[in-house]
Each structure stands twice: as structure tokens, then as C-alpha cells.
């Protein structure tokens, strides 16, 4: 006899578990099926453990900059196994926290693999054996995504790492090659660099962090290079050669082929949606290039089947997955949630220097036909950043010259990942330049640079 629910969610990542909790708040009887770890990639193999590692590399960097602050210490060293262990513990703690939250909200959790098994039906198996048959009027697919693999550069758990192996590394490589300079590649490159590795970052596009504003990409490149990272852009990886305990990457740049020998290689060339083996074949759910197609309320081509998060494509971000989960559930409950405004989803990269942005780049705004006003403010003009000893970076704001709408904001520098939310709220509230200029910012804070950037766009900057 199948167990009956109002809603079943397949996948317990930030999309799935948030959707399940919101549904429970709305008095639905909810089940969640998770085959591996509650918290999904984000808590276990993504957002959180990377930030725990990056905290360690930030501390290592600070310890090697002590003189700047009037301190001295000899024999600074770290225990790499302990650094990794702490990151895994943080991940474990948060995954256990999700289990507690689901219990508190009376969500029934099934440990196993969920697969659509007919209209309103889902089968759950564990190690190939049946665990449960579930029936629900609504099924949300939130199965996430995994690392994209380049043929010939498949992660092997030893010399070639995907993000999974890079998050639980068995050694601290002395020399490292990272292929792909999106957020994931840039964060790993920055982590290992700041822990003391010699890092080469390879990017096929003509600039690193290619989705960011071109000025931000150029600034981060310069900063990474100042930190002695080697960066190859417009670079085509032709292949790799494994040599016992090292790996040679063969790469072509400007028609010249070079070989880079490293201890390990991290492949961070994008992700693909987990669309396989979830029973989509027998449904009207449409899949395009490994991502499920949905409308603005997460509805797929199959009645009663919804999809959210990484499974539905870019931007591949935890907060996008969670927010989609809430929209879908509220729509199922008959509420009228605002559809997702993709342009208001902030993106952050926690490398050193940090990068954060929301909305359109200057180039995109111009392509979209806007007559723009652009403001810039460097942290070297900000008292708090100087006091912190981190005056590197800037804030750039892009406005529509006619309406004063904030089209985009782009930041690189200290704690910008904590500050971008200010501009995100402004965009969500459709705030104009006049209201932003009228806003009082506390002094001394790094956030004053956000105000100054707005002032600069309208010829009113004070401190530069
Ligand atoms: C190294 C790294 C760093 C990242 N850093 C950030 C960051 O700083 N900020 C940010 O916003 N995003 C970050 N991301 C992206 C973020 O992790 C994802 O966007 C987010 O996890 C997507 O959430 P989701 O719920 O859609 O899917 P996931 O988190 O992938 O969860 C899907 C879950 O479904 C389960 N599952 C899959 N198929 C089945 C099935 N058939 N039955 C049962 N269970 C199933 C999986 O086991 C998984 O637990 C990072 C990603 C990586 C890899």
C-alpha cells in the first residue's frame, strides 16, 4: 500500500529541503527523498565546506601579513589534514542541522533514490532494493547537478580532482593546475594559492570570471597575478598525461603549445543537471541540455511535476534553488508569489579578493539598449578598508541615465559578499538613484564605498 502525501520532494539540497519546510508551514503533508546527504551539494560538497577551507587560507594569508599590523611570529605552519577535517566537520554539522529542521517541521524523510513511477507516484529504492512507494498530488524534482567532465580529463580520485576530491584532498599539492575560472575554479585556485601552492589557472574564454563585469575580471586577474598565480586565458586544453604522482597538462595559448607539470589538476568546467534515472522518460517533462524546462512557477510539461534549483539550469546557486522552492510551493498552495526575477539574484565568489554582483554588467546594459551612467569608487578612498589593511578593490554601479534605475552593481574587495545584499534589496524595491543617494550609511564602514559609487555616477562623489 503506497504512502499518501500532499507533496513529495525528490532531493534534499537547498532547493528541496527549503521547499519541504515551506510546504509543511503551509500545512501540507510532506515527504522528502534524499539518496545521499541532507543539505545536498551546497552543505556537503559546495558552498559551505569551500567557505570553511577559504577561511583557513585567509587566516594563513593574514598570518603571513602580520608585520603590516605590528606583529611578529616565527615558524608559522599548518596541519593540512586538520584544515580539511574542520571543513568536513562544518559540513557534517550543517547537514545534521537540516535533519533537525525537517524533523521539527514533521517532514517524513526517505533515505533512498526517488524515481517517478506513474502519475502522482514515486518509487524509492536503496541499493537497488525497494524502500517505499509514495503517492502525492504534487512532486517537486530537486535532484541538483554534478561536475561536468571533459572527455580524457575524467576525475580519477588521484591526480585529477573534481570539486568533491578537492574538498577532501589527501595531499596539499605543491603545484596545482585548475581548469575553469568560474566561481568554483577561482575559489579553489585562491584557496590553494593562499595555502602556499604554485597555481596555474586555465580559462578558455578571454578573461577569468567571465560572467562578471569586465573591469572586475581584469582587476581579479591583476590581483591573482600579484599573488603569483599564473593565469592563462584564451587557453585550449589539448589533453593531459599522467606520470606516476604528477600530471602534465598540454595547453595551447595563442597558437603556442605548452606543457605544465603539477601534482594535481582540478577540473572546474561547469556542471550538468541530474536528469538521469528519475523516470522522466515516461513523462512530458522537457529536458534541454541536461536541464529540466519549467515555467515561472516551476511547472514542467507534466501535470503535477515541478522542478527547481540546479536541475533547472543557471544560475547554479543555492539561494536561487531555495527561492524557487518557496515560489513553487506557495503557487501549489494557491498563493500568488512573485515569479523569480533572475536579474535580482546576487552572485558571489569568495576568492581573495572577494567578488559580488547583482544585475547587469555595463556591457550587458549597453547591449540591452540602455543609456548608462556608471559610478566607480575604489576602496583606497574608504577609511575603514584602509584601517583594515585591505584597500584593494572597488565598487561599480550602473544606472539607467533616463530613469535612474540601478541596472547592476559590481564589487571586488573586502567583505563585498556580505555587502551586495544592500544593492539586491535596492533592486528588489526598485529603488532609484535619488533614494540611494539619500540613504545614510554608517561611518566608518566598508559599505560607504557603495554610497560613494552611486554618488560618483551622478557627479557627486566626495572622497575621491
Ligand atoms: C564547490 C562548489 C561551491 C559552491 N559554492 C556556492 C556558493 O558559495 N554559493 C552558492 O549559492 N552556490 C554555490 N554552489 C552551488 C550550490 O551548491 C548549488 O547551486 C546548490 O547546491 C543547488 O541546490 P539544489 O537543491 O538544486 O541541488 P543539490 O544541492 O545538488 O541537491 C540535490 C540533492 O538531490 C539528491 N538527489 C539527486 N537525485 C536524487 C534521487 N533520484 N533521489 C533522491 N535524492 C536525489 C542529491 O543527493 C542531492 O543531495 C557551489 C557548488 C560547488 C560544487
How would you describe this structure to a colleague?
The chain has 464 residues and is of the alpha/beta class. The chain folds into three domains: 3-147 and 272-342, FAD/NAD(P)-binding domain (3-Layer(bba) Sandwich); 160-269, FAD/NAD(P)-binding domain (3-Layer(bba) Sandwich); 353-457, Enolase-like, domain 1 (2-Layer Sandwich), CATH 3.30.390. 31% of the residues lie in helices and 27% in strands. It is built from 13 helices and 24 strands. The chain has helices spanning 16-25, 40-45, 47-63, 80-104, 163-167, 183-194, 214-226, 318-332, 362-367, 383-388, 416-428, 433-438, 448-457; strands at residues 3-10, 30-34, 108-111, 113-116, 121-126, 129-141, 145-147, 160-161, 175-179, 198-202, 230-232, 235-243, 246-253, 256-262, 264-267, 271-273, 287-288, 291-292, 305-307, 347-349, 355-359, 372-378, 394-400, 406-412. Strand 10, helix 7 (214-226) and strand 11 (230-232) form a beta-alpha-beta unit. Helix 1 (16-25) packs parallel to helix 8. The mean pLDDT is 97. The structure holds flavin-adenine dinucleotide. Flavin-adenine dinucleotide (FAD) binds next to strand 2, helix 2, helix 3, strand 4 and helix 8.
Amino acid at each position: 500500500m503506497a504512502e499518501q502525501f500532499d507533496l513529495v520532494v525528490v532531493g534534499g539540497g537547498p532547493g528541496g529541503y527549503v521547499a519541504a519546510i515551506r510546504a509543511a508551514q503551509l500545512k501540507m503533508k510532506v515527504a522528502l527523498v534524499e539518496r545521499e546527504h541532507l543539505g545536498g551539494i551546497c552543505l556537503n560538497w559546495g558552498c559551505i565546506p569551500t567557505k570553511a577551507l577559504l577561511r583557513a587560507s585567509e587566516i594563513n594569508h593574514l598570518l603571513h601579513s602580520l608585520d603590516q599590523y605590528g606583529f611578529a611570529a616565527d615558524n608559522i605552519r599548518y596541519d593540512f589534514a586538520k584544515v580539511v577535517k574542520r571543513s568536513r566537520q562544518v559540513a557534517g554539522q550543517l547537514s545534521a542541522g537540516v535533519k533537525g529542521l525537517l524533523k521539527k517541521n514533521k517532514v517524513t524523510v526517505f533515505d533512498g533514490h526517488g524515481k517517478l513511477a506513474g502519475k502522482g507516484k514515486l518509487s524509492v529504492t536503496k541499493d537497488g532494493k525497494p524502500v517505499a512507494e509514495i503517492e502525492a498530488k504534487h512532486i517537486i524534482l530537486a535532484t541538483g547537478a554534478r561536475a561536468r567532465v571533459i572527455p580524457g580529463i575524467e576525475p580519477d580520485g588521484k591526480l585529477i580532482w573534481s570539486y568533491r576530491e578537492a574538498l577532501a584532498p589527501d595531499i596539499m599539492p605543491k603545484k596545482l593546475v585548475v581548469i575553469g575560472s568560474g566561481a568554483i575554479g577561482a575559489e579553489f585556485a585562491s584557496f590553494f594559492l593562499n595555502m602556499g601552492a604554485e597555481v596555474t589557472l586555465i580559462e578558455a574564454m578571454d578573461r577569468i570570471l567571465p560572467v562578471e563585469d569586465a573591469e572586475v575580471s581584469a582587476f581579479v586577474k591583476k590581483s591573482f597575478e600579484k599573488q603569483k598565480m599564473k593565469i592563462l586565458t584564451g587557453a585550449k586544453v589539448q589533453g593531459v598525461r599522467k606520470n606516476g604522482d604528477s600530471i602534465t597538462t598540454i595547453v595551447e595559448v595563442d597558437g603556442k603549445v605548452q606543457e605544465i607539470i603539477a601534482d594535481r589538476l582540478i577540473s572546474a568546467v561547469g556542471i550538468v543537471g541530474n536528469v538521469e534515472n528519475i523516470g522522466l522518460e515516461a513523462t512530458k517533462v522537457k529536458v534541454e541540455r541536461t536541464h529540466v524546462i519549467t515555467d515561472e512557477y516551476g511547472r514542467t510539461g507534466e501535470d503535477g511535476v515541478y522542478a527547481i534549483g540546479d536541475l533547472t539550469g543557471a544560475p547554479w546557486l543555492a539561494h536561487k534553488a531555495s527561492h524557487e522552492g518557496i515560489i513553487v510551493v506557495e503557487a501549489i498552495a494557491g498563493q500568488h508569489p512573485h515569479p523569480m526575477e533572475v536579474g535580482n539574484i546576487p552572485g558571489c565568489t569568495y576568492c581573495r579578493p572577494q567578488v559580488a554582483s547583482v544585475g547587469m554588467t555595463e556591457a550587458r546594459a549597453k547591449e540591452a539598449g540602455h543609456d548608462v551612467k556608471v559610478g566607480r569608487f575604489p576602496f583606497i578612498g574608504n577609511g575603514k578598508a584602509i584601517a583594515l589593511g585591505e584597500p584593494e578593490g572597488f565598487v561599480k554601479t550602473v544606472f539607467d541615465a533616463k530613469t535612474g534605475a540601478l541596472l547592476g552593481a559590481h564589487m571586488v574587495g573586502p567583505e563585498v559578499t556580505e555587502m551586495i545584499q544592500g544593492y539586491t534589496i535596492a533592486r528588489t524595491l526598485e529603488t532609484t538613484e535619488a533614494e540611494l543617494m539619500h540613504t545614510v550609511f554608517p561611518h566608518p564602514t566598508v559599505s560607504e564605498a557603495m554610497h560613494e559609487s552611486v554618488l560618483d555616477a551622478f557627479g557627486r562623489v566626495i572622497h575621491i
